[in-house]
Each structure stands twice: as structure tokens, then as C-alpha cells.
Specification:
globular, 11-stranded antiparallel β-sheet, Beta-galactosidase, Chain A, domain 5
Length: about 240
């Protein structure tokens, strides 16, 4: 990955905003369209936000590379940082263990836990862990039950940790990781498979069907605020009934 996928590591850092449009569609709805260009990989990224008066935001993202010679992607999605306190995670999807597109032998259900417990600290060298694929919805909440709900259209690949990607890259052992009070949340369309199907192929690529081609594609989800005491599953169902 460090050699063949390095182009994607910093692709977003020199992103150029090409246009930003605001389109009021109704008294209680507005559409915002942000179009970016990533010059280092010659790729376009357009995000459309449909904001409703009740606080819901429908997000649609489109990935449009100009070249056919780009390497496969480690992941395709978006990341946000939630402030301190939003340290509880609940999701409807495979679990409770971590799952990846080529490691998802888990029962679909409703699971919950602390964000800090999603990280597996026993790997010899610390790395990303705790991913969740085929997620129908995921909620991050604080001690009062207030938080953020994300609903896939139809599914998401989700990762919530108290460590940044840079933290994981710099540490040689888990005890060297800084203690963070915020939560890094990835809401992805896809995350590359783990690979290494055999004990002697530890550096082998994931199978082709578990790779992410650098080809035009997109995904969508909806964000919704969660109030204290609200039934999260019922809120997610209401969003689905309302239509993505």
C-alpha cells in the first residue's frame, strides 16, 4: 500500500474548490453542491447536501477520475471528527466483531459499545481496526443520549475510533498512541479488503472483488440529529420510509 497506493494518501490535501452552489428548493429545504478537483490524481469529487428544516441532511457524493491508470483505492468515503463526549456507538449490521468486505462472517443485528472498545490494541503493530461493513445505520451519542445518526442508502462501511490515521501510522506499539477525547468517524462507501488469504501471503493484495477500482462511482447517506431518550431504530426507520 505504501508504494502502490501512496497517491491517495494526500490526494485531498490540495483539493481545489471549483464551484459552490446554493439552491433553495422549498421553504424548509435547501440544496448545496460543492464541486472539488484533486489535481494530484486528476479526479473530481462532488458532494450534494440537501438540508431540511428538521435538521436532517441527505448527502450524495460522486467520485469522477479523469484517468484510467490510477491505482486502486484503500477506501472511498468521507471522514468527520466528533467532539469529546460522543463516545458511544450503536449500529445495525454485522457484528459485534469487526468486519471488512472480505472478513464479514458475522450475524446481522443491533449492537452497541464504547468507541474506545472498537480499537484492537493487541496487534504487534497498531493499525486500523473495528471496521463495520454492510451497516444499515449507525449512531454516535453522548452520556445523555444526544448524538448523530447516519443511515446508509442502502449500506455504509463505518469506522469510529479515538485515534487519527496519523496516530496509527506513527506508533510502533499501541502504548505509544496518544489518548484522544474526540471520535474520528469514517462513513464510507467501501473500504478495501484485508487480503492475505494464506499464512504465507501476509503482503498479498486483497482479491480483485475486494478492491476498489479508481472508476466513476458514488454513494449516499442521510444524517439526522438524535435527541435524548429518542428511539434510534425508530428514527432510522422513519428516515427510510421518508425516502433517501
Amino acid at each position: 500500500m505504501e508504494r502502490e497506493q501512496i497517491a491517495w494518501k494526500t490526494a485531498n490535501q490540495d483539493a481545489v474548490l471549483k464551484s459552490f452552489e446554493v439552491k433553495p428548493e422549498a421553504p424548509n429545504k435547501v440544496v448545496l453542491v460543492a464541486t472539488h478537483f484533486l489535481p494530484s490524481v486528476k479526479t473530481g469529487w462532488q458532494t450534494t447536501y440537501t438540508v431540511r428544516g428538521n435538521g436532517e441532511i441527505a448527502v450524495d457524493a460522486q467520485f469522477n477520475p479523469e484517468s484510467e491508470d490510477l491505482p486502486v483505492l484503500p477506501r472511498l468515503g468521507m471522514q468527520m471528527v466528533l467532539p469529546a463526549g460522543f463516545d458511544r456507538i450503536e449500529w445495525f449490521g454485522p457484528g459485534p466483531q469487526e468486519t471488512y468486505c472480505d472478513r464479514k462472517e458475522a450475524r446481522v443485528g443491533r449492537y452497541s459499545g464504547a468507541v474506545r472498545d472498537q480499537f484492537y490494541s493487541e496487534y504487534v503493530i497498531p493499525g486500523e481496526s473495528g471496521n463495520k461493513v454492510d451497516v444499515r445505520w449507525v449512531a454516535l451519542t453522548n452520556a445523555k443520549g444526544i448524538g448523530l445518526l447516519a443511515i446508509g442508502a442502502p449500506l455504509l462501511s463505518v469506522n469510529a475510533l479515538n485515534h487519527t490515521t496519523e496516530d496509527l501510522e506513527k506508533a510502533d506499539c499501541s502504548y505509544q498512541l496518544p489518548v484522544r477525547d474526540f471520535t474520528v468517524l469514517n462513513l464510507d462507501s467501501k473500504s478495501q479488503g484485508v487480503g492475505a488469504d494464506t499464512s504465507w501471503g501476509g503482503k498479498a493484495w486483497p482479491r480483485k472483488q475486494h478492491q476498489i477500482p479508481a472508476a466513476p462511482q458514488g454513494y449516499a447517506f442521510r444524517l439526522r440529529p438524535i435527541a435524548a431518550g429518542e428511539d434510534i431504530a425508530a428514527a432510522a426507520r422513519a428516515v427510510v420510509r421518508d425516502g433517501q
